[in-house]
Write a structure and sequence with these properties.
Layout (H helix, E strand, L loop, with lengths): L1 E5 L7 E2 L2 E2 L1 H17 L4 E4 L11 H16 L3 E5 L6 H4 L3 H5 L3 E4 L9 E5 L2 E8 L4 H8 L7 H13 L7 E7 L1 E2 L18 E2 L9 E5 L5 E5 L2 E3 L16 E7 L5 E7 L6 E6 L1 H5 L11 E6 L8 H8 L3 E5 L16 H7 L1 H12 L7 H20 L2
Parallel strand pairs: 1-4, 4-5, 5-6, 8-9, 9-12, 10-11, 12-14, 17-18, 18-19
Antiparallel strand pairs: 1-15, 2-3, 7-8, 13-14, 15-16
Helix pairs in contact: 1-2, 5-6, 10-11
The protein binds manganese (II) ion.
Length: about 375
C-alpha cells in the first residue's frame, strides 16, 4: 500500500496580515498532482486541517473541494483534528463521508474502531488519534486522576492497539509533540504550563506513525515515526525548511520505505539581509521579489519611511528588523506573531498579576499547575465556540 502523509495545512491562516488561502489552493494543486503521479491509495492528514476552530468560508470550501477531488479519484482520505481545529466541527459528516472513502475523527473516544483498508497483501489497520488534551482523555476514558500528556497518550494508544489483531500491518495517525522534536514559531503550544510532550515509545508497535503538530519535517524517535511538516512556511523561522509531503510505501511484511517529496509554493517565505542601497541594486537579490519577505535591514542610520521604501522593492514585505539600529521605533517594526506571543505569555501575565496582588508572593508549583490547566481548558473551550 502506498499513501501520502501530510499535516498542518492550517487552511485559512492569516500570515503577515494576509489570508493564505489562495497560496494553499495553489500548493494543494501540486499535492493533487503528486497523488496522481505517485498513484497513492490514500492520503493521510495528521491534524490542523484549519488554522482555527471556526475557519473562514473560503478555507472550508477549499477543504470540501480537495476531498471531492480525492474521492473522485477513488483515493481514500484519513484525517484527524489537531490542536487548532474544533474537534466537534471536524467530526461533521463523519458517517456519511465514510461511504465515500473519507475517514475522519475530531473528538477522542474510548473504543474507537480502527479504519481498515485493504491491498493485495491483506488489511492495514489505521488508528485515528485526534489531538486531545489530558482533560478530554479523562472525560472520554473515565479517568479520575490528573494525568499528563504522556499518560493520556499511553491510555489512548493502549485502547487503539487493543482493537488491532496481532501480526497485522498498522498505521497510527496522531497530532502530538513527541519528545526530542524541534519546534517552529508558527506552532501554538499544546499546553501553556506543564509538559505537553509524549514519548515516541507509545507508537513502537505501528508499522508507521504519521504525525502532525511540528511544522518542520523530521523523524521522531525512529525512522518510521515521522512528521511530514506543514503544507507551507507559516513563520520566518521556517524560511530554511523544505515543505512537502511523504510518500510512504508499506510492504506486505510491514516494512516501510518513505520518500519526502518537496512541493513548490506560489510564494516562497524568506529573509533578505542587506542595506537599503544594496537591496535597491539590480541583481542583488535574484529571487522573485513578490515572495513573502522579512527584511533584516543592516543600515546603522535612521531611514525615513523605511517600510514604504522597502515595500516598493518587495510588494509582499511582511516584516522588517533593524539589527544595527539603536533607536528602534515600534511602528517601523512589524510584528506578525503578536497574537501568538500573547498566548505564550498568558501564564507569565497571570504570575505577574499574582505577585502584584499579593505584594510579592510567587505562585507555588501546585498553584501554577492549576492556573495552567485553567488556561488550557479555556483554550479548548474557545476553539469549540463560535
Ligand atoms: Mn500546526
Amino acid at each position: 500500500m502506498r499513501f501520502l502523509h501530510t499535516a498542518d495545512w492550517h487552511l485559512g491562516k492569516l500570515f503577515g496580515q494576509r489570508y493564505m488561502t489562495s497560496d494553499q489552493r495553489y500548493v494543494l494543486e501540486e499535492l493533487l498532482s503528486l497523488v496522481k503521479e505517485a498513484k497513492v491509495d490514500a492520503v493521510v492528514i495528521a491534524g490542523d486541517i484549519y488554522d482555527r476552530g471556526v475557519p473562514p468560508a473560503e478555507a472550508v470550501d477549499l477543504m470540501s473541494e480537495v476531498l471531492a477531488r480525492l474521492s473522485e479519484r477513488k483515493v481514500s482520505v484519513l484525517y484527524i483534528a489537531g490542536n487548532h481545529d474544533s474537534a466537534s466541527r471536524i467530526d461533521f459528516g463523519r458517517s456519511v463521508m465514510e461511504r465515500s472513502g473519507v475517514y475522519l475523527r475530531g473528538r477522542i473516544a474510548k473504543g474507537a474502531e480502527p479504519v481498515v483498508l485493504e491491498d493485495d497483501a491483506g488489511p492495514v489497520y489505521f488508528s485515528l488519534i485526534p489531538f486531545a488534551a489530558p482533560l478530554d482523555v479523562r472525560d472520554a476514558f473515565g479517568i479520575e486522576a490528573s494525568i499528563s500528556y504522556d499518560e493520556a497518550m499511553e491510555a489512548v494508544v493502549a485502547d487503539a492497539r487493543s482493537r488491532i489483531p496481532a501480526g497485522v500491518r498498522s498505521v497510527a495517525i496522531a497530532h502530538a509533540f513527541l519528545a526530542g522534536g524541534r519546534s517552529s514559531e508558527s506552532e501554538r503550544p499544546l499546553s501553556v504550563g506543564g509538559s505537553d510532550q509524549v514519548r515516541p515509545v507509545h507508537f513502537k508497535d505501528y508499522s508507521y506513525t504519521a504525525l502532525g503538530h511540528l511544522h518542520g519535517p523530521q523523524r521522531a524517535g525512529a525512522e518510521n515515526i515521522r512528521y511530514s511538516g506543514s503544507l507551507l512556511k507559516y513563520s520566518f523561522d521556517e524560511a530554511k525548511q523544505q515543505k512537502g509531503a511523504i510518500v510512504v510505501d508499506l510492504a506486505a511484511d510491514g516494512t516501510v520505505a518513505q520518500e519526502f517529496v518537496p512541493l513548490a509554493p506560489r510564494h516562497d517565505v524568506r529573509i533578505v539581509t542587506g542595506t537599503l542601497d544594496e537591496l535597491r541594486t539590480d541583481g542583488f537579490d535574484p529571487l522573485p521579489h513578490d515572495d513573502y519577505v522579512r527584511v533584516d535591514l543592516l543600515d546603522k542610520d535612521t531611514i525615513l519611511n523605511a517600510y514604504d521604501k522597502l515595500q516598493a522593492i518587495y510588494p509582499n514585505l511582511f516584516a522588517l528588523t533593524r539589527p544595527n539600529w539603536k533607536a528602534k521605533s515600534a511602528d517601523e517594526l512589524a510584528a506578525p506573531s503578536q497574537a501568538q506571543q500573547k498566548e505564550r505569555s498568558a501564564l507569565t501575565l497571570f504570575s505577574d498579576f499574582f505577585r502584584d496582588a499579593t505584594e510579592g508572593d510567587e505562585l507555588s508549583d501546585e498553584q501554577r499547575q492549576v492556573v495552567a490547566e485553567c488556561l488550557d481548558e479555556m483554550e479548548c473551550e474557545r476553539r469549540e465556540q463560535p
